[in-house]
Amino acid sequence: MDRANGNMKSIDNLAAEAQGGVQQTAAPHRTRIKLCGLSKPEDVSHAIDLGADAIGLVFYPPSPRSVSIAQAVDLVHDVPPFVSVVGLFVNPTPDWIREVVSNVGLTLLQFHGDETAAQSETLAGVAGLPWLRALRVAADTQPADLVKSALNYSAASGLLFDTHVEGYGGGGKVFDWSLIPAELARRAVLSGGLNAQNVSDAIHRVRPYAVDVSSGIEVAGARGVKDHARMAAFVRAVRAADAE
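Structure (tokenized):
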């Protein structure tokens, strides 16, 4: 019995030491990466090879980055497990949501229009999927406004912060990152004019959960056409920022 008790004590001690070791070597922050507006299979394959955490498909026909359901089915065909497929929608009808999700293997919805919190929850219920809410940050936006919106959209899995522009969708413009309250960083997906040159500064200043890029990984002057070198440079810059 004493020997058994001794063994138990040894195990307990080892467990305590292991736990202490884990606490002392906590993993550094890893910013998740979403590459959005992909429209070609080779772009999706490249994003996966680069280690992107999520790819974004646009289901908003007026956008130059929009894809049809048939295109989307082809794009997600070889997406491996644990890579999220995010569908971006702007003021969609329940029928449009239902048609897309019944054909395309999405894992997350992103609402980028004027959807209220109640409408967002209803649409997500139709899809049976979690959702992100895009919050457009204007020149006169105050941190308190973002906190209020965050509370209003508390059912969202996360909040995507983008620059307010005319119309819908990203305009490739940066907003004042200091407007994002620190208490929202854990839920924040930072977007709006990010590229390989400025994403490190954005990460250091905001410490968002994730970053989202579209125009910043495109061929200059060609909206919707992805540049594989810029995609790779963006991912490298994020990983370098995390390591600093």
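The first helix runs from residue 2 to 24. The helical segments are 2-24, 41-50, 69-75, 94-101, 117-127, 143-152, 199-206, 228-243.
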